[in-house]
């Protein structure tokens, strides 16, 4: 009888484990890819910021462009984290 229970348990748990591992893999790949793209964009923005003249940089800072860029980067990172979390822990 133990062999029967073991076979049944394996038959039930194998598809679930396969689905969980597949979802985990896609979530990690998505997160790593988007994180690399966001890091690249932030690096490009930082290098462009460093190439500005001092007077232009101070005007841009007074206009709040650096704060707006920080808010956008934070929003994109939060959205990405929520999308990955939704994949692992669906609400429905």
Helix content: over 70%
Number of strands: 0
> How many DSSP helices?
3
Question: Regions with pLDDT < 50 over 5+ consecutive residues?
Answer: none
**C-alpha-based Rg, rounded:** 23 Å
Distance between the termini: 37 Å
- Tell me, briefly, the overall form: rod-shaped
SSE series: HHH
Q: Kindly report the average pLDDT value.
A: 79
Class by helix and strand content? mainly alpha
Beta-strand percentage range: under 5%
State the major sheet: none
Structure description:
The protein is mainly α. Helix content is 90%, strand content 0%. The chain contains three helices and no strands. It has helices at 2-50, 54-63, 65-88. The chain is rod-shaped and about 80 Å long. The mean pLDDT is 79.
Write the layout of secondary structure elements.
Blueprint: H1 2-50, H2 54-63, H3 65-88
Helix pairs in contact: 1-3
Key traits:
single chain; 92 residues; mainly alpha; 3 helices; rod-shaped
